[in-house]
Amino acid sequence: MISIVLLINPGSSKIEKLEEAPELLERDGIVFSLRGGPRTPQPTGDRVWDPVAVYAPDELTEEEFQQLFEASRGRVQELNLKY
């Protein structure tokens, strides 16, 4: 399984598990595009992580995505793992 991180806005995100990481996903009327991954994080302590793929709203520019990513790091553990 792949952990799908959906970055919705600076204060909201969702994590789902899917078999594949398509280029585009639609959730709640928002089209998300694949922005990173899937990549497999290094194990931490006693946990082995599933591959992680990061999605953001498709209409965001790369700069807007980077700002959203940084704003989300404090609350989304998967964004702070080592790969």
Fold and architecture overview:
The protein contains 1 helix and 5 strands; from the N terminus they run βββββα. It has one domain (2-80). The chain has a 5-stranded mixed sheet with strand order 2-1-5-4-3. It is mainly beta and 83 residues long. The model has no long low-confidence stretch (mean pLDDT 96).
Short descriptors:
mainly beta; five-stranded mixed β-sheet; 1 helix
Ordered list of secondary-structure elements with their pairings:
Elements: E1 2-9, E2 12-18, E3 24-27, E4 30-39, E5 52-57, H1 62-72
Parallel strand pairs: 1-5
Antiparallel strand pairs: 1-2, 3-4, 4-5
Give a brief outline of the structure.
The protein is mostly beta strands and 83 residues long. The protein has one helix and five strands. A five-stranded mixed sheet has the order 2-1-5-4-3.
